[in-house]
Design a protein that fits this description.
2 domains, 6 helices, FAD/NAD-binding_dom, Thioredoxin reductase, FAD/NAD(P)-binding domain, single chain, 5-stranded parallel sheet, about 20% helix, oxidoreductase activity, about 325 residues, alpha/beta, flavoprotein
Length: about 325
């Protein structure tokens, strides 16, 4: 599928970039594993202008709704390779292959894979990396959280309000995480911790229906569940960009003040870049800068004039929508 601009990443930087790109008439696609990224771990953001208090999930959802309102398309996929051919960028994901004139890297830090057998097979079919996003799909069903620390505990606490039973694997013989969250999780009758256990294989037919757990003593136990929520934290997954764009020793993408990378036509924003102060509002601002630069790059390729700002009035279904 061919697009004017593709944004890799569905958190604040990527969604902000998509809003600006779509508003300027660019055929825009966001490719992401989830919506909100690390922001989903924040239940109470108190320093985002315009909101005294808002959860990362709610803020990201508002960003996504606005992007979709202007025509942004979404693909829940994971990009594996990025190449350039004939002045076009070719992106190969797990599900599809994509092509674009300009590329915006805004994937920040991505969910860490579990690494168990069956994980790839059942991604999107019972294997999830976002408990808040997908939890409601498994209301009154048995689910399992695979992870450690506060990531896993936060998922367990939320899923405990919707699922019938929540299993949480722990490699050690104790629960890791903050004491207050541990106490709260232990207080829930439908949350059960499985000590000295890890997921060996995710099983199912068309969708997940069980997990095979490997115990520390070598024994194996199979538990019927309808979903596996992977909560292993987040990492900067920039390996696919090695040799494609310049990165620093922390594997962050190096950009200039306009969001440009070392490769013409490729821009970046947010936590994946070398810009300090990893904050939601900063990522959103960087996303808009990267988008304007990408738009101008596409315009230049097509012999069109440049865009200096976005004061454009867009009448959507005859409803007045004006950006500030």
């Amino acid at each position: 599928m061919k697009y004017d601009i593709i944004v890799i990443g569905g958190a604040f930087a990527g969604l902000s970039a998509a809003i600006y790109s779509s508003r300027q008439g660019m055929k825009t696609l966001v490719v992401t594993k989830d919506i909100g990224g690390q922001g989903l771990l924040t239940t109470d953001i108190q320093n985002y202008p315009g909101f005294e208090s808002i959860s990362g999930f709610d803020l990201a959802s508002k960003f996504q709704a606005q992007a979709q309102m202007y025509g942004t398309e979404f693909s829940y996929d994971e990009i594996r390779t990025v190449t350039e051919s004939d002045n076009q960028f070719i992106l190969k994901g797990v599900e599809e292959q994509y092509e674009c004139d300009a590329l915006i890297l805004a994937f920040g830090k991505t969910p860490r894979d579990l690494g168990s057998k069956g994980e790839e097979k059942y991604k999107g079919r019972g294997v999830s990396y976002c408990s808040i996003c997908d939890g409601p799909l498994y209301k009154n069903k048995d689910v399992l959280v695979a992870g450690a620390g506060d990531h896993a505990l936060q998922a367990a606490l939320y899923l405990g309000t919707v699922a019938s039973k929540v299993y949480v694997t722990q490699k050690a013989n104790r629960i890791s995480g903050s004491e207050d969250m541990i106490a709260e999780a232990r207080s829930l009758e439908n949350v059960k911790f499985l000590y000295e256990s890890e997921v060996d294989e995710i099983l199912g037919d068309k969708t997940v229906n069980a997990v095979s757990l490997k115990k520390k003593d070598g024994s194996v136990e199979q538990i019927p569940v309808k979903a596996v929520f992977v909560e292993m934290g987040y990492i900067a997954k920039t390996g696919m960009l090695k040799g494609f764009v310049e990165m620093n020793k922390e594997n962050e993408v190096i950009i200039d003040m306009n969001g440009k990378t070392s490769r013409e036509g490729v821009f970046a924003a947010g936590d994946v870049t070398n810009i300090p102060y990893k904050q939601a509002v900063i990522s959103a601002g960087q996303g808009s800068v990267a988008a304007l630069s990408a738009i101008n790059y596409v315009h230049k390729k097509r012999g069109m004039g440049s865009v200096r700002s976005d004061w454009k009035f867009v009448d959507l279904n005859k409803k007045s929508k004006i950006s500030l």
